[in-house]
Amino acid sequence: MNFVPIDNEPAILHRVSEGNMDAFRLLFRHYEASLYTAALHLLGDRVRAKDVCQDVFLKVWLKRETLVDIQDFSAWLFIIARNRMYDMVKLMGDRPKHSLEAVMEYPATDGSPDDDVQVREIRAVLQKAILRLPEKQRLAYELIKIEGLSREEAAARLAVAPETVKSNLDIAVRRIRAYCQKELDWELLIALVVIFL
């Protein structure tokens, strides 16, 4: 795993530490592909790799006040990612790919008990929101956001037009956001929107 620091990283980390969502989104987008690729290589499963990315960046958000004190963010991120991947390997063993419900129940280790409670809270609320969706919207969301399929791949699997998948996904995301806005405080909601939606 080789994480290349983002340009002007100390200033971005400072903005994230102050709760700036745009800076967090920038950081997330910069590291997401490298982290996902490394997790996919180790775990061999797109759903689990995406889950690692989400858990790692939830940890970053939950620890944002401490980011300004970290001397080498990319090394710190590497350690969190490595620990999370190894925890998942131990947790899953050789079991086959799991359903959405099992994916949402993966614990986020390597954090404090408070972090774990917040991660579980986000995942539980998100799971409820997804399970409340009408079937077509839920399937579009799961295939694209959870399994990582492209719109065209999801359309082929569902035997519908890509535009139909896009429409169902857009509606699903709006409904999930609306549900989560009622259920989560704003700080957890920010992390959920940036990372999961």
TrEMBL record:
Positions of the RNA polymerase sigma factor 70 region 4 type domain: 125-169
Keywords (A to Z) from UniProt: DNA-binding, Sigma factor, Transcription, Transcription regulation
Superkingdom field: Bacteria
Domain RNA polymerase sigma-70 region: 27-89
Family: Belongs to the sigma-70 factor family. ECF subfamily.
Identification of the protein by name: Sigma-70 family RNA polymerase sigma factor
Species of provenance: Chitinophaga defluvii
InterPro entries: RNA_pol_sigma-70-like, RNA_pol_sigma-70_dom, RNA_pol_sigma70_r2, RNA_pol_sigma70_r4_t2, RNA_pol_sigma_r2, RNA_pol_sigma_r3/r4-like, WH-like_DNA-bd_sf
Pfam families: Sigma70_r2, Sigma70_r4_2
Keyword Transit peptide found: no
Record's keyword annotation contains Ribonucleoprotein: no
